[in-house]
From TrEMBL:
GO biological processes: asparagine metabolic process; glutamine metabolic process; oxaloacetate metabolic process
The entry's keywords: Hydrolase
Name recorded for this polypeptide: CN hydrolase domain-containing protein
GO cellular component: mitochondrion
Organism lineage string: Eukaryota, Fungi, Dikarya, Basidiomycota, Agaricomycotina
Amino acid sequence: MPSVSPPAPLKAFTLALIQLGNIGSNKAANLRHAREMILKAARAEGRSKKPDLIVLPECFNSPYGHTHFPNYAEDIGYYPGKPYDVGTSESESVQMLSSVAKEISTWLIGGSIPERDVDTHKLYNTCTVYNPNGDLVAMHRKVHLFDIDIPGKITFKESETLTGGIKLNSFDTEFARIGLGICYDIRFPEMAMISARQGCHVLVYPGAFNLTTGPLHWELLQRSRAVDNQVFVSMCSPARDLSAEYHAWGHSMVLDPMGAILSEAGDGEEITYAEIDPQVMEDTRAGIPVTVQRRFDVYSQVTDLSNL
Ligand SMILES: O=C(O)CCC(=O)C(=O)O
């Protein structure tokens, strides 16, 4: 594992998930609606304070389906660690997300969008992150592509048009270190484990489960990753739209390190908020000390599967 600097301590903060509805074939309309909902989430009517971090769902600017990715893909051209001028970005989604993050002066995880690499022209399912100044500060390309085939229920093959990312990604805010994944990435505990061991306090996955795997696995996987790693976990879904080609499960949620659900949306368009309390993480880790009981001396014996 590459060496990573330890994170600053987790502080209390408010997380808002936008379970976005009305995602259709008109990209400009999708972007307009996403912007309106981000402004609404930031207004936080009826709440005592505005959120510190707002999250959009997977594929928020285009219909979800591998045949659509090439038509909706945008050139982002972001290279971690290199200066990035949002003003000259080719990506209209990046432009919108950056300007609205700046307008509301709030951290924003921009769900995901189909991206075309400017050099290789390969397509990715990509999440971008903005600080309250509107700077693009992190990007995650979905590592594990959603290729499933459950006969009679659902067949989906992202790898027909997309390429998987080759890197795990996280970013630091003034309140937490946050690890990124996209949807199917949550099925791979190794990825969550590495992010948690690199100091992430919260793992956020823009996602879009379906009506076959959603009921059984959506909550289970999030609770598992939260309990395994004693971190906060959250997935943000689009709203369910039965007139769309892909029927998303909805139920955007936030879980604490004990696996308790802090907030959960229904299946329609909704903004759900959760208060992240660092004490819960501290108490969980003190009470159930798995984070300091790991036996790497034993695990090393089972890495070679040919011995089994
Ligand atoms: O893993 C699943 O069941 C759903 C995953 C998914 O919808 C996705 O990766 O977009």
